[in-house]
Amino acid sequence: MQRHEVLYDSLLRLLREFTLAGAQFEAYFDQLLNDVKEQQLLAHGEEIDKNITDIIKSKGDLTIHSTFQPLINSLTDFETDFPDFPFERKDEVLIIIKIIDIINIEVTGSGSVFDLTQPVDETLFCLNHVPRLLSSENFLYYDLTDVKNSVIVFDTVDLSKLFQFLETGIPIELLLALLTKLGAVAAPVISGINALVRSDLDGLENAVFACSALHIVKSGKLIHAPYNYPAPPKVSSQRIVNSSLQYQQFSESLHILSEYNHQKDILDKYLRIYHLIENFMFKYPVVSLERSHAGTAFSIRDFRVLYGKVDKSESTALKELFEAVMDLDFDPAAGVKFQKATYDAWTAIVPALIADKLKIDKLLELINVTTAKGNAILYDSITKEEDFPAFFAKLVYGFRNSIVHNRETEFHLTHKTLIAHVDIGDTAKIIVEQFLIPWLEEISFYLIIEDNQLVWYNGRTLALWNE
After folding, report:
1. Would you state the torsion angle of the CA atoms of residues 162, 164, 168, 174, taken in this order, to the nearest 10 degrees?
2. Which of 102, 168, 202, 325 has its CA 20 to 30 A from that of 262?
3. In what order do the strands lie in the sheet with 139-141?
4. Quick check: 396 and 314 in contact, CB under 8 A?
5. How far apart are CA 265 and CA 274, in angstroms?
6. How many Å apart are CA 25 and CA 9, to the nearest integer?
7. DSSP secondary structure letter of residue 332
8. What backbone phi and psi angles, to 5 degrees, belong to 425?
9. Its pTM surpasses 0.85
């Protein structure tokens, strides 16, 4: 193709759909059955026809058309008066016009001769929709040594943002390459994120994604859509900070909570609150031993016992902590312990938050929440309050592992699988956002605010001998 064909052929073909020459125009006209609307439609078509004539003249003169504003106004008026007109490619038309405008400005500004008869190799690149890219970031990589390695990623949903991106100095040869793919007869541009990449990757969705994504993350940008958790910590109104108590023993925990409040991303917040729980679960046996001595001297044997209590698996330590926590009074006035409060909240998830409990079952399988023998735990199998602490510990630990671990054999919880997993949709997000984080917040603030036997030391020091 020659440059003048690249600039104008697809644009002219698309524009004719807004005139009597377009098949959809005639069919739409026939169903109006209103003389006023029919005349109005014809007037719009004639106005666009005039612009088409001007563009054809520019093409014949081998010049870059520079007066697109009347055409843009006509298209806008057309859409305003006939919003249900069956043509889905108006945005594509506007993108083509914008690119031609940018090329014109670039050529005029440089003062160089721009020969519209020069050939353009339309086989170098392909244009593919990339549904796996969730970030709306427009992106350019230009390879000076091998142009085929260049990549343009753009989002058609926000045209104003896309137009600003196109104005950032994209080389003309890449703008022309992009024009060879826009307006194609059998390949309308799909709304959303698209990538111009070397033609070898055409139709290979995973390869197009990987190539585009690698370029984007290499440049320090995002390929995922972050999901924030902006709510303040959920803390019962019964948690009253008593200034007479010695909260200074929780200075480290308060710093963790400050970092937790600073984090907005939901996965990062979950890990922060887990770090606090992790601190508590290893502090719990130490406090238990310290309290049991009531100020009497520690022996070597006591230290060996202490070591044995903290030298255990993380999952075991977590289970023991939650079993103890669940026996605490969440609402003393109502006689409700944490066990009942959390169990009731869990059983209310279906159908209040999630209609299909099979998706919860699949989630539990994915994050490896199973019995000690490796058997599946189902939503319906949690039927007793007394069994809930152990399950809650498995759930908390399973989510932690799925965020932290990234092994080929394990499920990895990313923003994509959190929000739009192929099998469970946004089930993971709902469980984290509506159940786990709020209850971990309640537990954490209870353990810090309320003087308790689990994580509060009786004294500041350990006695090593009696005076």
Report:
1. 30
2. 325
3. 125-129, 193-198, 151-155, 139-141
4. no
5. 14
6. 19
7. G
8. 60, -125
9. no
